[in-house]
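To: structure desk
From: M.T.
Subject: fold request, one chain
Message: Could you run this one when you get a chance? Sequence is below, nothing fancy, just the single chain.
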Amino acid sequence: MTDPDIDLRELPRYRAPAALRAAILRAAHREREWAPRWWWPALLSAAATAMAMALFWVSVLPLALPGDPLNRAIRAVVSEHTRNLIWGESRPRVVPASLPWLTQETGIGLTQAFAGDNELRFVAGEPIYLEGQRGVAFHYIDPDEHVVSYMVLPVPNLMVPERHRIQVDRYRPALTRNDGFAIFVWKHGDLASFLVSDMVSEADLGRFTAYFLRIRETTEPYLE
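Reply: Done. Structure tokens follow.
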């Protein structure tokens, strides 16, 4: 039942899929082939009504089915990782010297952070703003030029799904893929951590898992 307090004119509108219009027109054409001419106005009216109803349901569906917090967060961190790949960081900062500045800018503290080693070189640390939340991102690069981004966001309602969890030493992060990237996801209380890279092949996943373990064991974020 429609809520009487909702003004339908204020709801967002979305263009109907092209396939929907084509299907309605095909159905109307088939009806015209056998229907008497005096039926055509009624048939066209019915087709228009069907299209109007479809447009209405397309417009209200996003309101009834909000996106999953995990999927939204993954899309956001993948977009941020892609932005870093394209533009890089104009003001690279060095860990651990930058930790107080990052905490001041983001509200996320780090008792310790992975500063890189002879295989995974630290490139930059920076504040980020994703999904309406301030977060922190560290970027690394390995000998094969794979960029690895570690990001932390406050997402208290995010649940790490059991079906995607894998055992990595004593940890059980979720491992998923999105748009050609592999993503590890795990929680520190109300903070969600993401490790993103393009290391999606079976040969690369072993090294990516080793990078996760290295960062997970040496980086401890907390909310200020």
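Reply (cont.): Residues 29-35, 54-65 have pLDDT under 50 and may be disordered. Let me know if you need anything else for the meeting.
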